[in-house]
Amino acid sequence: MRALVALGGALGATARVAVDAALPTGAGGFPTATLLVNLTGAFALALLVRSTDDPALRAGLGTGLLGAWTTFSALAVQGSDLLTSAPIVALAYLVATVLGGVLAVRLATRLVPASATSTPGGTS
Amino acid sequence: MTGLDLTLVAGAGAVGALVRHEAITRTLPPLLAVHVLNVLGALLLGVASVALDGRALLVLGGGLLGGMTTFSTWFVLAQDEPPLSAVLAPLAFGVAAAALGRLLWITAGGVA
């Protein structure tokens, strides 16, 4: 199980860093790359946990890949930076992140009806 | 970004994900463990963002701390919890922790 988490984590972090490099954010700019990885990751994880109870899939794809694809540390530092340098952008970014995350999870939950195999919330 | 950069990020991301996996499965209740790791990661990235640059920041910040913290698990676990305590408070703590990390490094005599 740990090997799958490590493999997924390696791939997820590398892919996120590549997206960051492809969509650079200038000083005071809107952090598009982080918003993109976080919302897609939340959506995909919500789909995954309602689609399978397989511990190996949840560990490798959920905790490993999608856990590392998304990030909180960058979100917090960007939010903190923008609050001092560009408060309107900071507000837009934080609101888009929270509302987008909630909507992404709800949308995924509607797309995959609760089944006998699903235990919502059990992501590890 | 070089191949070496990406290789180091991959290794650091694996370590970060493993730390998170162990914390979530072995320590606190999962959502609480995620909050603790996320806020801790925000504090450390606040320090790293002023203390490091170049490859060190990419690997330790983007790889290790990015892999240790998570948005997806947080939002999926918080889905049926009160938004104020499960989402807004942790976000506010994280933003404050990032600012605190930067401030700590600068007041400790580090170069901004």
Describe the structure in your own words.
Chain A is mostly helical. In chain A, about 75% of the residues lie in helices and about 0% in strands. Chain A has 5 helices and no strands. Chain A has helices at about 1-20, 30-50, 55-70, 75-85, 85-110. In chain A, helix 1 packs parallel to helix 3 (about 55-70), helix 2 (about 30-50) packs parallel to helix 5 and helix 4 packs antiparallel against helix 5 (about 85-110). The model of chain A has no long low-confidence stretch (mean pLDDT about 95). Chain B is about 80% helix and about 0% strand. In chain B, helix 1 (about 5-25) packs parallel to helix 3 and helix 2 runs parallel beside helix 5 (about 85-105). Chain B has about 110 residues and is mainly α. The model of chain B has no long low-confidence stretch (mean pLDDT about 95). The relative contact order of chain B is 0.18. At the A-B interface, helix 1, helix 2, helix 3, helix 4 and helix 5 of A face helix 1, helix 2, helix 3, helix 4 and helix 5 of B.
Terminal Cα span of chain B = 24 Å
Portion of residues within helices of chain B: over 70%
Largest sheet of chain A: none
Number of strands of chain A: 0
Strand content of chain B: under 5%
Please bin the fraction of helical residues of chain A: over 70%
Which radius of gyration of chain B do the C-alpha atoms yield?
A: 15 Å
Please count the helical segments of chain A.
5
Shape of chain A: flat
Which stretches of chain A are low in confidence, meaning pLDDT under 50 for 5 or more residues running? none
Strand percentage of chain A lies at: under 5%
Number of helices of chain B: 5
Reading the helices and strands of chain A in chain order gives HHHHH
Q: From the alpha carbons, calculate the radius of gyration of chain A and give it in angstroms.
A: 16 Å
| Mean pLDDT over the full residue set of chain B | 96
- How does the major sheet of chain B shape up? none
Overall average pLDDT of chain A: 93
Our measurement of the CA-to-CA distance between the termini of chain A, rounded to an integer number of angstroms, reads 11 Å
Largest interface, per-chain counts? A-B, 58 and 55 residues
